[in-house]
Amino acid sequence: MKRYFLCLSAVLLALIILAPLSSQAAGKTLRVAIIAPSAQNDLAFTQSIVDGIKAIQKERPIELAITDGTFVVEDAAAAIRDYAKKGFDLVIAHGSQYGGSLKEIAPDFPNTAFAWGTSADTFGLANVSSYEAASDEGGYVMGVMAAAMSKKGGVGVVGPIEVGDAKLYVDGFVKGAKAQNPKIRAKVNYIGSFSDVALAAEAARALMAAGSDVLTGTSQMVVGAIGAARAKRVPWFATQANQTELAPEIVVASQVYKWEVVLKKILADMDKGIKGGKKYQINLANGGIVIEFNDGYKLDPKVRELGLKTIAGIKDGSIKTDL
Amino acid sequence: MADSFVALIIVSTIASGIRLATPFLLASLGEALGQRSGVLNLGVDGVMLLGAFCAYYTVLQTNNPYYGLLVGIGIGLLLGLFYGFITLNLQAEQGVSGIGIYLFGLGMSDLLFQKFVGTPRPILPFMPLHFPVLSDLPVLGEMLFQHSIIVYIAFGLVPVMSFILYKTTYGLNVRAIGENPEAADSLGVSVMATRYSAIIIGNGLAGLAGAALAIELGIFQQNLTNAMGFIAIALVYFGAWTPTGVMFGSFLFGLVQAIVLQCKTFGVIPRSASDLAAMAPAIITILALIVVAKRFKQPAALTKPYVRGG
Amino acid sequence: MGLLRAHCPGAAGTNVKTNNIQTIVRLLIPIGAVLLALLIGAVMLLSLGADPVRGYATMFGAAFGSLEGFSETTIKSIPLLLVGVGICIAFRANVINIGGEGQMVAGALLATIIALAFPALPPLVLIPIVLLAGAAGGAIWGAMAGALKAWFNVSEILSTIMLNIVAVQFMNFLLRGPMMDPAEVARGTGIPQTMRLSPNADLPILIEGMRIHLGVVIALGVAVGAYFLLWRTSMGFRLRAVGYNPDASRYAGISVPKNITAALAFSGAMAGIAGAILVFGSESHRMVTDGSSMGFTGSAGFNGIVVALLAGLHPLWSIPSALLFGGMLVGANALQRAAQVPSALIIALNGLIVVFVVSSEYFKQRLTPALRVDNELDLIEEGGNNG
Which residues in chain B are contacts of C173 at CB distance < 8 A? Predict the structure, then answer.
């Protein structure tokens, strides 16, 4: 009898001690810092991660610090180090070029969780996770739709520099277009800069003059291309964020990155004490990538059908982009 | 069939070059005027950016692109007044103050954008003009006569500026104080007033260039000009401080950019060489200047503050 | 061009007699200018809902308030000082070098290539070699602009700005192609960066636990060397003569084209060393870019011009000038983090500080007129000039 009561008291005691800890884990304000290379309202790369964290802020208390516009790699390194020193729980290095620096900094702060995107490398460190977007999937879907929509048999792409996320999207788009119509003329123009908006606009015009009647593009300078497409009423497929409001008359659909899908997993791991070491990806299957159609655009129902079927095909694995 | 396609491409390339050249031309004309009077302004890009944002915001609120242009010019004039004060009255080092204004314009335009606009919203650009007979001409029509009004304003300013600079007393004064301010002063020309006017007009044109850029692109973004202002400054040297020279320089630069774009569109330039191709406008500008190298001299009094009576 | 002559009398290089009160006033005036700019910045901060007092406290603390902060400031100042010293040389020869960005990139590329080619050399050999390579790369880039001016009369302002563009695209081409990290190639992500460079080329850390490295010593050495070059060697005399009065120099038998090229070569070399130090002293120990030059250099190629001009084009005065400018940059970044304002405000604030400080020279002039003792170069040009 005595033993029974002793056990019971021990269990009760344990529960009393542990309970506040567990509710703290869910209720404690996490300090998260984001370092990103472009402006947080760029309707593209940086905005996507900020939107992702803000979506999670609705569910749990997060103290968010943002250092945007950090295209100077050394400055970003200094910022990463500083936030880690200030005791932030999670430091998100949202830029492929930050990886080399992060590799050197992370070992100095074993109690800080770091996340690096877009990439698929954690350097074998226990406190670094990586995240990337399977933007080729959305690209493929939109390539299929674009090829189906094109009356002249030509689609055009305006890209910045052939690296990382941009390259993945463009390759996926071209593949999808060719899969839909092997004879499609898919022209790609990497203008050589992430910020030359005027050149992007002219690139779009050149593509249109050369016979592309459906356009797409990626990265922040693409707003110029959207403007040029809008003037000629050429349909546009968008990526990285929902860009419908930029040109409601011509945007057909946007591949939207819902980073919160990945961020939730990272935070959940952190609750359990795992600070990193895992590679994450957002894609169509896990809902991290969503194709948002612009309801204001009168899309041919057959093309929409085709798009939805392709999405389903990628989700269940019957269609592979092989990229 | 193939021939007419090639002709079409050439036509659209030249048209594209003209469009790309326009903001360079406007900013460069303004800088040329200022430099002729002996003042270097390295802050052109900053003025362009502030002009661009203010014009963008105006059009966003009023839906009228012409108001946007006016506001852009106005901001340029104001900044010109400020630059004139610190350069002429306070005799600040021109190279440094220019870079300071560039930084200020770069940051302030983005800051104002983030605070007052937030998420980018599009504005309507100018519609291409349509001239009764000219626009429908087979080749020249698309090349020259289907542009928006700002293109015509820019290229139209070239003869206007040439006239002012070479055929008016004012222009004579500007050139004189740029070469020898002491002599001009002794002849009764107010060095201060003339330089002030040149700076103010010059910056007004820079503001106009930025406004034109933003309205043409239909959007504003952080660092919209992407260092266009510095290239415009370089083109002043290319053009030997003459409006026509500046026009040729801007057009050459824009044309090469357009040609590179076309080559990329048609796969003539493989993707692996796309970075090398992006060098083309810069290299060709240098080569062109070597070929055209005449022994021209810059305004002798450029960047020297003038102090009356030594 | 008269950027040299545009300086107030009493600019370094001439002898100046002032008394102590005047010296203090001369120091206070630029400080006052900075404070005025910060005041306007405070208004901007308030309008964004941030606390200026705490923000500025963080700013100063981060830049100069601790050993670590000072270490960061120093690291930031190194490229500013090197480029600035190069500008001193160039501008004194009347050559306007706006090509600092491109020259830094060129130097960094050559230094990185050497490090990739000879990773096994011991540090005592490798480090000097990569720094020399950096100097060589920058010197070549500068000399190109110099030759264009000297023999083709192509304005150096045009050629240096254009060569900046060429350098950036060349860097993109190399970093995304032949010089790209093999791991990146394998993964196919295509980040434009090299592999982690040989540890033998890491610049040694000077103080345990800090990041301050040998680059400081090198930069200081270069600054002192430039001082000697300009005022203690005949080459320096020729450079300054060509800058002061090219016609008289030609009369005296000094070759103007050769000296212009030399000036740009020296200037470029120093920027090139800065580029090399940036690579080998960086956190990542590799050369990486986002596609622009400023992403790599942090705009040191332009800021170096400001540093040099604020220092009166004197290599030794460039040292405190670079330190202060570096402190401003470090502090501004810390301010952004502390006050959580957009980085754009920081850039605008930097611009304001530069404009106000350079405008305050006027008040320095008016309040502390200095006696000017003749410079030996005045013998070349009779009568001097106002300015």
Answer: 273, 275-276
